[in-house]
Design brief:
- Keywords: ATP-binding, Nucleotide-binding.
- Residues 27-202 form the AAA+ ATPase domain.
- Pfam families: ATPase.
- The chain is α/β, with parallel strands linked by helices.
- It has helices spanning 17-20, 41-54, 68-77, 83-87, 114-120, 135-140, 143-150, 154-169, 186-195, and strands spanning 6-7, 25-26, 30-34, 59-63, 91-95, 129-133, 174-179, 198-207, 210-220, 230-236, 240-244.
- A 9-stranded mixed β-sheet has the order 5-4-6-7-3-8-9-10-11, sandwiched between helices. It has a two-stranded antiparallel ribbon with strand order 1-2.
- β10 and β11 form a beta hairpin.
- α7 (143-150) crosses α8 (154-169) and α8 packs parallel to α9 (186-195).
- It is globular, with a radius of gyration of 18 Å.
Length: 249
């Protein structure tokens, strides 16, 4: 039976991820997906985004790494076709261009206050679910945040951002943040870990010559059915996310 308060991530016929996560993501929640480089953060985010759109939710995806073309190509390689949802405006994709004096710098190349500009970009917050992938890159490229970090006031900066996110989720929306914990100070990421309604830690484990990935469910407030502590998965070209039933010893 579907839960009214859950946004299904769908694809029940293709993988068991929605079932493993208890039927979907609770509305009005902050979701933190944390993992080192290569752990599968982007792939899991892309799987979530595709499934949500398939289930009728509107989605914004901001990527600090992929261009629109790169995003479409990567989704295509995972068999998550995104051209139609993009054309139908069910999916809004934004590329955060830090390097070429693009969207996040002014005419003379000076970096702007990224977080403030994100908060003021109303169109991106209109969707049911907003992904910021990877959120730590936005942190690291924001001169205002950098200045606070130099004064050891990163917690204060984080709390200001969190209060903005709380305002967004009070409307029943979902904000999904992906973070590489090795790229940002623990003091900066700590407040986000504390307030996340759903906190998923991704890790890669070497077993012999095999690399296995797993989702460690650290917190899942407002879950539907029971959610397991660990979910094994792999990322396969031409297939997408595959849930592995084997457990990691």
């Amino acid at each position: 039976m579907p839960h009214d308060n859950l946004l299904s991530i769908g694809l029940g016929e293709r993988d068991r991820l929605n079932k493993e996560l208890g039927g979907g993501i609770p509305r009005g929640s902050i979701v933190l997906i944390e993992g080192d480089y290569g752990a599968g953060k982007s792939a899991i985010s892309q799987r979530f985004a595709y499934g949500l759109v398939e289930e009728g939710a509107s989605v914004t995806m901001m990527s600090t790494e992929l261009t629109v073309r790169g995003f479409i190509d990567q989704m295509h390689s995972l068999e998550y076709e995104m051209v139609k949802p993009l054309l139908n405006e069910e999916m809004l994709f934004l590329h955060a261009d830090f390097d070429s004096g693009g969207a996040f710098s002014d005419g003379d190349g000076e970096r702007k206050e990224l977080l403030k500009r994100l908060m003021n970009a109303e169109a991106m917050w209109n969707s049911d679910v907003v992904f910021l992938d990877t959120f730590d890159a936005i942190f690291r490229n924001d001169p205002t945040f950098e200045a606070l970090v130099r004064k050891n006031e990163e917690r204060q900066a984080a709390l200001e951002i969190i209060s903005f996110f709380r305002e967004i989720i009070s409307q029943g929306k979902v904000v999904v943040l992906t973070v590489d914990p090795s790229a940002v100070d623990d003091d900066a990421i700590g407040p986000f870990r504390s307030i996340a309604d759903v906190f998923l830690q991704l890790e890669m484990i070497e077993v012999g010559n095999d690399i296995r990935r797993q989702i460690n469910v650290k917190r899942f407030a407002g879950m539907g059915e029971q959610v397991g502590d660990t979910i094994g998965f792999s990322v396969r070209s031409g297939t997408g996310i595959v849930i592995e039933s084997r457990s990691v010893a």
